[in-house]
Amino acid sequence: MFCCQINAQDLLSANKTIDSLIDICRNSKRSAAERLFLARKAQGIASLIDVDSITLKVGRTLALMHLDNDDLDSYVRVNSQNLELATRISDSFSISAASANLGSYYRLVQQNDTAFYFLNNALKYYGTNEYSLSKATTFYIIADIQHVAKIYDGAEVDAIKSLEIINEIEQTENALDLASSVYNLLAIISKDIGEFEQAIEYYNKSIDIAKRMENGYINIVYARNNIANTYRSLGNFDRSLYILNNLKSEKGNYIALDSSFYGTILNNIALTKVASGNFDYDEIVATYKEAENISLEYEYPNGALNALLDLSDLYLQFEQYDSVMKYASESLKMATEFSSNEAKQRALMLLSEVTPGEQG
Known about the structure:
Layout: H1 8-25, H2 32-49, H3 52-68, H4 72-89, H5 92-108, H6 112-125, H7 133-148, H8 152-166, H9 173-192, H10 196-210, H11 217-233, H12 237-249, H13 251-254, H14 261-276, H15 281-297, H16 301-317, H17 321-337, H18 341-354
Helix pairs in contact: 1-2, 1-3, 2-3, 3-4, 4-5, 5-6, 5-7, 6-7, 7-8, 7-9, 8-9, 9-10, 9-11, 10-11, 11-12, 12-14, 14-15, 14-16, 15-16, 16-17, 16-18, 17-18
C-alpha cells in the first residue's frame, strides 16, 4: 500500500504499526536479537513512508537495539545518520539525543576530545529549563571527561549540575543509579585534590543512594573499594585492608555483575600492603600478576595496565631494572593500543628511570 503517494489513512496505519513495534522493542523480556529484528522491521516501514520525524523515531530505537546486541559500529552509524537528518531539519530533540549517544560512545572508547564535542553539542539543544535523565547524564559524562583532564573545578561544577537535574526528576532506578555515580565521581575529584574526608563523605552518599536501588549492590561495592583507597591515601592501612579483605571474601556476590572486579581488589590489596611497608615481596609480585591475568581474562585493559604499572613500580623500588624494562614496555604497548594517555605517560616515566636520556 506504500507505493506511489501515501494517503493520510495509510500514513496513520503505518505509524501505528511502527509504534507497536517500538513498544515491543522496549520489552526487555524479549531477546535482544528479536528486538533488533523488530526494530529493523519498523525501519523498513519507515523507509517506505519516508517521513523525517518517523525516520528519526525509528532510528533512535534501532540504535538502542544495536547497543543491546553489542554492535557498537552499527550503533555509531545509525546515530550518525540520525544526527545528520536531525540537523538538516532542525529537530532539536533528535540532535541532542543523537549527539549525547555519540558522546557516550566516544567516552567509552576513551576518545575524549570527540566525546566532549558531541556532548557539548547535545547541551546546546536541550531546553534551558529542561529536566531530563539524558541531560543529567550528559553533564555527568562531561564532568567525568574534565576529571580525566584534571580540570577539577569544571568537573565539580558539571557534576553538581547533573545532581540538580536528578533531584527534579522522577527517582527511577536509572536516576538513582546516575545519582550514585555522580557522588562517586565527586568523591574521586575530592580525593584527587587531597580532600580525603570530603571524599569519604561523598562515597557514603553514593552508598546511601545505591541502597535505595533495586540493583544497587555493585555501586556499593565500587564505593567501598574507593573508600578503602582513600584510607590508604590517609595512611590508615589497617582500615583500608580491612575493607579490601572483606570485599575479597565477597567475590561470589559480585563476580557475575563484574567479573574483572576481583582483579581490582587484589591489585588494591597489593598496593596497600606495599604502601604500608609491611609485605612479603614474592606474595606481592604474585598478587599483581594474578590481578593482571584476571583483568586480561575478562577483557578489562585498564585493570591489566594498573597491575603491570604497579608491578613495575615495585621492581623499580627493589632495583630490578630488567623487570622494570620488561613490564613498563609491555604497559606502554598496551596503553598505546587502548589510547590510555595517563598510563602511557606513567610507563614512559618508568622507562626513563631505567634508560635515562633515551626515553621520555
